[in-house]
Amino acid sequence: MKHIVTVQDAVTAFADFMEPTDAELDAIEREMPVVLADVDLLDAYIVTLDRTPTELDARRIRRARRRALAARVALLNRTAPASLPGGAA
Predict the structure, then answer these.
(1) Is this model's pTM higher than 0.90 or not?
(2) Is residue 33 a contact partner of residue 69, using CB atoms and an 8 Å limit?
(3) Which of 15, 14, 62, 71 is CA-nearest to residue 38?
(4) Contact at 8 Å (CB) between 62 and 41?
(5) Could you list the pLDDT tens digit for every one of the 89 residues in the chain?
């Protein structure tokens, strides 16, 4: 009979070193508007899963989609100048 051994020590042995860095936390904070806009879009889609979408539902989805796209564009506009070498557009 084989014994099942836990790997808890191996998994958590480096937990102190696996904390996010300040740069990673800043990146998460910069991306949070995109995440929240995507959650709103998913909520709008979820509402319509079990029924026929009404005009109000369609408007809600369109608004949520526009907000999600606007949040992505804003994120790209904030990060794009830093990623282009030599200031080329």
Answers:
(1) no
(2) no
(3) 71
(4) no
(5) 676 666 555 555 556 667 888 999 999 999 999 999 999 999 999 999 999 999 999 999 999 999 999 999 999 998 876 655 665 55
Give the closest residue to 38 by CA, choosing from 4, 69, 83, 76.
69
Strand, helix or coil for residue 48: coil
CA distances 41 to 7, 28, 38, 44, Å, are 39, 19, 5, 5
Residue 16 near residue 54 (C-beta atoms within 8 A): no
| Among the listed residues 75, 70, 81, the one whose alpha carbon sits nearest the alpha carbon of residue 26 | 75
Residues 6 or more apart in contact with residue 63 via CB below 8 angstroms: 44
DSSP 89: -
Instruction: Compute the distance between CA of residue 60 and CA of residue 58 in angstroms, rounded to an integer.
Output: 5
| C-alpha angle 64-50-69 in degrees, rounded to nearest 5 | 15
